[in-house]
Amino acid sequence: MLAVETKELSRSYAGRERGTQVRALDGLSLHIHEGEVFGLLGPNGAGKTTLVKLLSTVLLPTSGSAAVLGNDVVRETAAVRRQIGIVFGGDRGLYPNLTARQNLEYWAALSLVPAREAPARIDALLARVGLHERAQQLVQGYSRGMKQRLHLARGLVGNARVLFLDEPTIGMDPLAARDFRGLVRELRGEGRTILLTTHDMSEAEAVCDRVALIDHGRLLALETPRTLAQLIARNERVDVDGIGEALVQRVRSLPGVSTVRSLAESSSYRIEFADGQAMNAVLSVLVAAGINSIRTSRPNLEEVYLHVIGDRGLRV
Amino acid sequence: MSALQVFRKGLVVGREDFRAFWNLRTWLSAWMLRIGTGALLWVLVGRMLGSEEKLAYLLIGNAVIAGPIAVGMVIPASTWDRWESTYPLLVVSPSSMVPAQLGRTAIWWLHGVGTSLATFALLGLCFGLALPPRAILLLPLIAVVCASTHAFALTLGGLVNRVPPLRNVLQNSVMPLLMAVCGVSVPVSFWPPWLQLTAQVLPVTHGLSAVRTLLAGGALPEVAEQGALELLVGVSWLATAAFTIDWLANQGRADGSIELT
To answer: Is the pLDDT of residue A175 over 60?
Structure first.
């Protein structure tokens, strides 16, 4: 069964100028399988959070449809809500005047966890996220990382089969973020489906089975992190040291070479290709010219992200 | 059962909200000083008019209304989930938001009952109001008045959740309106017919009338009847609140006004 399915899903908002509409999501069709960790990447305003809001029933679509575990998010809202958990990043979304245990007790009741089962489930969750010893402490005294772990426990208290993590590691220090990702992997191991929105490429690479790039509410690419990286540089790029201007010009003129550019703060050049067959010819020219410091490398997700989104970058 | 469970856990959230504002010492000193002096001012007007009857009228009216004024805190409290970003999580929880909101704000009902009774004691002491044994019935009557105000304020809280910045404006507008039209300092009959009719569906009017009848030595069945009318008004407002809280949340889903953070 599909954990999440959207068909031509769209959502528009009234624009700032009277009578105008802004399309936050524009005909998005996605399939997310059960047990998958699915990453959603895009700049601010790309439509990531809008998608999470639609799937979690916080928002109604303007057109199209979406289903979570086979339940339509508009017509079968109650069934969807029993199966999902939402976790978002930042300090908010918790009751700071309550202890961690009191927070979870409240959300357990709201998640319809039977009163007899709630204490044991809360104990297990607190232990799992490493907050058992701080369970009686007020949340207002928690660090950002501790709050985030409590957020995750809150999202799990109803035993959600599908979890929406909306930029969950935002503002966390690297160690806390690494621990958090470890928890995400554990959840995948339990067969839960996770939709993760993030700006952090290394996070997407570390935990996601597939990654979708979206911008302006549209799907730009949908692949495994590795395949996505191959989308832009189907051929590996070549970094080379110690070549003179004449050789640079010669390489530039070879068929299939897209760019030859100087790398910042070094004497190296990076050669990228529009045609995968061009690499052999370039390597032959470089070797014939006596160049012996040649490296090939693959782009990481960040580079893919910047290539696909283009020069819009992280601007809103 | 699940609604009761949510309500009970909501009480804990409300209790901690209250503790963030008051402890017993500050409640008795700062809060009661503020409410007591406000009520005292009105009662002194009765003394200046030189009429024991008017003094008693103003004293009873202002002691009772002190409770609903305190309960008015339910209006801004209904929006606190917005500020804490827990509102979207409540909206999408499998439970209805109604028991959650009712539970979280119930502490302000208790606050209101305590405030009204303490104001009665304070003003009674200052002006030598002799309370007959039947005055013990003040407790259930004031509890009902504060409960109906709670339900009314919950309805307004649901509405103001659509425009949270107006929460304090609404509280500070509606509570004086109740003071003016519900027979606190001037009889309901003072107002034009349409406003008199409006007062019949507002909290306080019938309950205050029951308190006046009780303390004037009126027949207990009449007191019970007026108290029951107050209860009916409260139940009606509770039904309205139950409908509007979830309905307005759904409106927020449609217009996109519910943010995740």
So the answer is: yes
